[in-house]
Records
---
Amino acid sequence: MATNEAYMVVGGCGFLGRHIVEMLLARGEQNVSVFDIVQRHFDSNVTFYIGDLASSEDVTNAIKKSGATCVFHTASPAHGAGRTIYELVNVSGTRNLIDSCFDSTVRRLVYTSSAGTVYNGEKDNINVDERLDYPAVALDAYNETKVSAEKMVIRANSPELLTCAIRPSGIFGPGDRQMITGFYSVVLNNQTKFQIGDNTNLADFTYVTNVAHAHLLAMDKLADVYPYFSFRDPISYVDASMG
Ligand code: NAD
């Protein structure tokens, strides 16, 4: 059901971000905007802000102009971009976004993290949940920066800004520009004569609209978490949490 909120999808021209935009529009949301470094979609009913997450000016301008109250943060560089870019976008960019959220009308932030934040290849994660600790050493630079971003988002959770992080594993479906292309190039390059593990390994893959739906559910649910206090009123927040 449509709400009266103003939604911004950061990374909304990407694979997952686009599905979130389409799902918001499909449920009748009237106020949807996108912040992305490149514009790949053109909808008359969506406002596109083109800018770099690593630029605090770009982020602040977009957030302020949009009047967003709810932000989905799905932006991240593609695998292979390198540590410097990962740090710029995932770490500095996420910090810029959180700062802008606190300094604006944004009240809820849902971050797309990754299952890679709790997996470094040393042991299988079977039937685990969010209580699982981060590994001492991350799988790679990409996941190291996803961990930093996720920690910032979770720590920012407060009466002023309700936050949540979702950790998808592999995502597949229409619009994917990375996974199937990667698998396909392996076949094209005749790189198929290898086996990973002992042929009993399991990996989770989730259909993209299910991941997008999870983001909308998380965003909606954040609104219910503290139903009794008014934002920016620490006294009633304390009362509500004690009740
Ligand atoms: P994607 O590359 O399709 O989308 C990311 C979007 O972010 C792109 O539109 C890109 O232009 C934008 N972006 C990148 N750098 C930016 C910058 N500096 N400023 C503004 N925008 C920028 O990726 P995706 O597959 O849709 O992934 C979305 C999120 O889901 C990412 O955070 C990723 O870590 C996470 N994730 C993806 C998978 C997967 O299998 N695809 C699995 C787990 C987690």
---
Amino acid sequence: ERVDFIDFFQQVIDRFEMNVSDQIELQRDLPKEKLYVWLDKDKMAQVLDNIISNAIKYSPEGGAISFKVAKQKGNLLITVSDQGPGIPYDKVDKIFDRFYRADKARSRKLGGTGLGLAIAKEIVESHHGSIWAKSKEGKGTAILFTLPLINKKRRVN
Ligand code: ATP
Ligand code: MG
């Protein structure tokens, strides 16, 4: 269905804001305008739930998580960044593989199956977007994904 992504994203973040500890700050950097995309809302909520849960799971006390949406040509670029431990350079692309968990010891302690991001990738791609990660060890992790914007004016030739 056609959805204003900004409104949808605000609602998802609001839900986390109510439940997350005061020690983690959620920062939003979102456009003021409505930006429409085609969404399976339940599936996209699953994508964001996993990305944001990971960010919270790996955030240090006093850490900030930032949410950003930008227009990029015909796409939306959505970025969720944290100030957690990061992911080693050679492992950052593997986190989208099924059952892959970057830091065995820490991951075991924090729980999970290693499926979240593999499912997120499937869902984003089924929306004709792509997803990737940028990370610096000791600095933090950013998960980025795109979604095609719906044209306001449909061109008929
Ligand atoms: P699940 O999501 O199934 O509960 P999970 O969170 O371990 O388990 P994914 O969400 O697929 O699995 O993430 C895969 C791995 O990528 C994680 O185990 C972790 O090693 C790494 N990872 C994901 N997000 C972050 C992050 N924000 N900071 C650091 N490492 C991350
Ligand atoms: Mg996860």
